[in-house]
Amino acid sequence: MKINVLAFGVAKEIFGSSLVSLELTNDATIYNLKYLLEQQYPRLKQLASYMVAVNNEYALPGDTIHERDEIAIIPPVSGG
Amino acid sequence: MIFGIKDYWSKDKWTKESLIFDLFVLDQLINDMTNTQILLSAETLNIQSCIDWVMSPESGGIDVFIGTVRNATKGKAVLKLDFEAYEPMAVTEMEKIVQQAFDKWPVQRVLIHHRTGVLQVGEVPVIIAVSAAHRDAAFDACRYIIDTLKQTVPIWKKEAFEDGDIWVAAHP
């Protein structure tokens, strides 16, 4: 399945775009997504940490991704 | 929320007692809808209007946290900050924090206003205002809200220095 990944903050600069498209297997997890992204964008591994959000909620590494989910890369937050 | 409006109107037995109870519940529902205000804005925040909004005759005190753009980080001059938000999720996460504050402390009204966009030194990126009958709850909730916001709400700031820009907290 093809999914779109939103990027914010430093992740947007690492991807060179606020939106990237990826091809994932149908039962892909957050862990699989992070692995794939880190292969394509090694600078992600240099971040202090980063989370993935699915449909506006923080996701866990074992969570499955579904087609049409809204996926976002959340680098360390620094609001306030 | 105890029950939805649909359930409310489909009640088939109307007694004086149940009506009084229902009006009480409805009042609570309306109150629930107006005791929280969350705003993400690209416009200048208005401190006085935030204080006015949380003030009520039942309040014994108001706690306000105002974040301001500092002119230096670790001795290096900061020229400006640029705030970016994942807006729908930022609002959802702020709503969660406010709900946690209501669960933990007897607070009356809670407000969070947060800026997006470019802010100059001295400008205000965030205002948190909390009213309560007694000051302990207001102090504790206000502190909890700003501390948790900084950990969980998807908002990012980029510091502009004379020799380049850095996303805060991005790298170890």
Automatic annotation (TrEMBL), chain A:
- What is this protein's name? Molybdopterin synthase sulfur carrier subunit
Q: What GO MF annotations does this protein's record show?
A: nucleotide binding
Q: Which Pfam families match?
A: ThiS
Protein family membership:
Belongs to the MoaD family.
The keyword Nucleotide-binding appears for this protein: yes
> Which Gene3D superfamilies would you find in this protein's record?
3.10.20.30
Alphabetical GO biological process terms:
Mo-molybdopterin cofactor biosynthetic process
Give GO cellular component annotations, separated by semicolons: molybdopterin adenylyltransferase complex
Record flagged with keyword Iron:
no
Query: Which stretches are annotated as coiled coil?
Result: none
UniProt-listed InterPro entries: Beta-grasp_dom_sf, MOCS2A, Mopterin_synth/thiamin_S_b, ThiS/MoaD-like
Sorted alphabetically, the keyword list is: Nucleotide-binding
